[in-house]
Design brief:
This protein is mainly beta. The protein has one domain: YVTN repeat-like/Quinoprotein amine dehydrogenase (Methylamine Dehydrogenase, Chain H, 7 Propeller), CATH 2.130.10. The chain is 4% helix and 50% strand. It is built from 2 helices and 28 strands. The strands form 7 sheets. It has a 4-stranded antiparallel β-sheet, with no helix packed on it. A 4-stranded antiparallel β-sheet has the order 4-5-6-7, with no helix packed on it. A hairpin with a 6-residue loop joins strand 26 and strand 27. The longest helix is centred in the first third of the chain and has 9 residues. About 1% of the residues have low confidence.
């Protein structure tokens, strides 16, 4: 199955609606390939999940599976390490954490059932700036408290637990000062991962000291039914600003309120704002990535859509990809000066870029790529 000419024209024509950014359009050398850390399964819900590396050949117009390791259950977050290995976590409530080596072999696996804590993983990991520890988002399954696990980088053994100062911490990143930025999703969940008592939602964005876990700052939104989930940094050179984008999911009881809900929050300096009140018609952003040099791309898999936000047009979301199951996102530099994004869809990998032609590469076999992927390198 191939995408239509109309859909490609939408991807290319989206630039007309974006603010001018001074891009050069011709005569630039384009990368020939890209490697992505990804997770996937076969076409059926019961198929085995794998994590590994997908290689995109732009000139050959194909994707190959460079390495793959079978996983015990569905994964969620993927974190590349400097030596080429890959940290993979089980989907919430995650019972395992795994390291996969460059050759695709499983080097380590931690089963949380064997730890003394009652915590389970919430899906994301980040490596400390010093490289000695990793931080994991977790939930105490007895109390429901949000936790940050501090684990030895080499052994993956838990060294300490910090409070996340909220419910259901999901993704976390490190800021320029080495502190942790954590999206507390705020949704009460049972041990079987069922949502309940949504009137008690307590979503927040917090900053913790990266050495001690001390709470430095906590931000909340006026609407308590907006769950803060995924994070990305993006630098806007023209405005000399770095933004933290937060992809959100609406949990309102009223379907019309969910459909009308915004899907993006932005930490601008020290203020958490909702710049674009328009959303996606579903109130569900699945992933976020830096794009267009200072902006963010957001995916909405429920409606088959990826949209672009930029600080030069802060009230607007521009559609850049409209394909079924538009989901995993990662920033892609591409030709100078960068600003592109790679999007997983039901049909294959979609490439969007301000100065490169859009492209769609079909999957190498029948497969369903999971929620997130990460660009490793391009050549």
């Amino acid at each position: 199955m191939k995408t239509t000419r109309r859909e490609f024209l939408k991807m290319a024509g989206a630039l007309a609606a974006l603010p001018p950014a001074g891009f050069a359009w011709a005569g630039q050398a384009q990368p020939k390939s890209a490697s992505l850390a990804a997770a996937w399964r076969g076409p059926n819900a019961g198929d085995t999940y794998f994590a590994g590396v997908l290689s995109a050949d732009w000139e050959g117009k194909k994707i190959t599976i460079s390495r793959a390791a079978a996983l015990p259950t569905r994964p969620h977050g993927l974190t590349p390490e400097a030596d080429g290995s890959l940290l993979v976590t089980g989907v919430r409530p995650g019972a395992w954490l795994m390291r996969i080596e460059r050759d695709g072999k499983v080097a380590q696996q931690v089963d949380l059932a064997g730890e003394s804590s009652d915590a389970r993983l919430n899906g994301h990991v980040v490596v400390s700036p010093r490289g000695d520890v990793i931080y994991t988002t977790e939930t105490d399954m007895k109390t429901g408290r949000g936790l940050i696990g501090v684990r030895d980088r080499q052994s993956l053994k838990k060294l300490a637990e910090w409070q996340s100062h909220g419910l259901e911490p999901h993704q976390l990143l490190v800021d320029a000062a080495g502190h942790l930025m954590i999206a507390n999703g705020g949704i009460p969940r049972t041990a079987a991962d069922k949502k309940y008592d949504l009137h008690r939602m307590d979503a927040s964005l917090v900053r913790l000291d990266g050495q001690s876990g001390r709470l430095l700052r906590r931000w909340t939104l006026d609407d308590p039914r907006l769950s803060l989930r995924h994070l990305a940094w993006s630098h806007w050179a023209k405005g000399d600003k770095t933004f933290l984008g937060v992809a959100m999911q609406a949990e309102h009881d009223d379907p019309s309120a969910r459909a009308a809900a915004p899907i993006l929050a932005v930490l601008d300096s020290d203020e958490l704002i909702l710049p674009a009140r328009a959303g996606d018609g579903a109130g569900y952003a699945g992933d976020i990535a830096p794009a267009y040099n200072g902006g963010f791309a957001l995916s909405s898999n429920q409606v088959g859509l990826a949209q672009l936000w930029h600080p030069a047009m802060p009230e607007k979301l521009t559609r850049i990809v409209e394909l079924q199951e538009a989901y995993a996102l990662t920033g892609w530099e591409g030709p100078n000066p960068g600003g592109g994004v790679l999007v997983s869809t039901a049909l294959g990998l979609v490439r969007w870029h301000p100065s490169a032609k859009p492209a769609l590469l079909p999957w190498p076999e029948k497969m369903a790529v999971d929620n997130h992927w990460v660009l490793l390198d391009e050549a």
